[in-house]
Design a protein that fits this description.
alpha+beta, Aminopeptidase, 5 helices, N-acetyltransferase domain-containing protein
Length: 150
């Protein structure tokens, strides 16, 4: 399967947020309490500062496109922390998530992520290691992980 990985342009932010929200509800909401679901929606999906940080290049949104359709999204804080990584459910297990992470591997020696319980095995397959115990921040469960590329 051939897809293109590139930084998402402002015109595609709405589509990216829609993919993020749908994927969060499908895969990660089961690990959150009501507070966690509400805080994710408030802090990511409906937060104008989230997009402002992308426009100011504090955060970057990478997209994976297949046949000109957005099928995967990775949000990166600064240059090496994966904030969010979601792939359209119909496109899972086609290497899209791995390809998005590979974009960081080319330029970063250390990559971190606070993985959802759903994604821990995915990150382990890419070489990430768990570095701390499970965290609960505003009702959202995550597991801190790191990848040293060199």
């Amino acid at each position: 399967m051939k897809y293109i990985i590139k930084l998402i342009k402002e015109d595609d932010y709405e589509e990216a947020l829609e993919l993020i929200w749908k994927s969060f509800l499908q895969f990660d909401a089961q690990y959150c309490d009501d507070e966690g679901i509400k805080s994710f929606e408030r802090d990511v999906i409906k937060n104008p500062m989230f997009i402002k940080m992308v426009l100011e290049e504090t955060n970057y949104i990478w997209g994976a496109y297949y046949q000109n359709r957005l099928c995967g999204v990775m949000v990166v804080r600064r240059t090496n922390h994966i904030m969010l990584l979601y792939v359209n459910s119909t496109m899972l297990r086609n290497g899209i998530g791995s390809a998005l992470v590979d974009e960081l591997k080319y330029s970063q020696h250390i990559i971190t992520v606070n993985a959802s319980p759903f994604a821990v095995e995915f990150y382990k397959k890419l070489g990430f290691e768990v570095i701390d115990t499970k965290k609960n921040r505003h009702g959202i469960i995550s597991i801190p992980m790191i990848l040293k590329t060199q």
